[in-house]
Amino acid sequence: MTGQSLKNGYFSRQSRLYLQIRKIFHSYPEWRFDPPSVQIRRELERFGSEHAGYYLDPTHIDQNSIVYSLGVGEDISFDLALIERFGVHVHAFDPTPRVREWLGSQSVPERFHFHDVGIADFDGEVDFHLPPRKDFVSHSIVPAREYSTETIRVPVIRLRSAMQRLSHDRIDLLKLDIEGAEYRVIEDFLSESAPVEQILIEFHHRLSSVGTRKTRRALQLLESRGMKISYACPRFQDFTLVRDFPNLSPPSEL
Q: Which fold has domain 31-118+167-243?
């Protein structure tokens, strides 16, 4: 039985590696063989689970840092890891009713603050497309064939409005996993010159109604405001962007 288990484990690992390689090679044509690349080197650490974790530069994160986590789903391992390591207060935003119910059944630390409202480029309400399956948790304000045509109405506010409500004049760490809404949110907070020092983002150009052109445009906008790519995952969906502090010496070549 043990030998069979090990054998299955071996082939399982081989299969996962094969699928990852296929996805990576599929990503290059998506970007016309010119995907985004790392622009600045920082000592990054990964926080959170395999499926909901992010790389960040912990250098300027401490207990006084302001952290916003947009889109949390049913995995808050990233948020909890930050709280445990740095003692920060994490403000999490997600309008999904299922997420609110799930969090109500969890024991979360006092420094985890949940706001059952979405972040968009306006204040008000929006149609929220349900996932294609009942066992999926991710909803989206972006109409795409990856989501159901059935919708619910949920409240949303601008990032600047959230900051004003919470009396914050800056954001030290901003994480976005908001199923395609990130593009308009980025444009909105950049237009307001909202001070954000580090951004961790999952782009959703894989959605049928989006495409890599929007992601490239968003990255160009962020770069124009002093944010540079410090990490890009092999599939070019998860990115870490940090502010290029002029008082830091340029990175050495690895």
A: Rossmann fold (3.40.50)
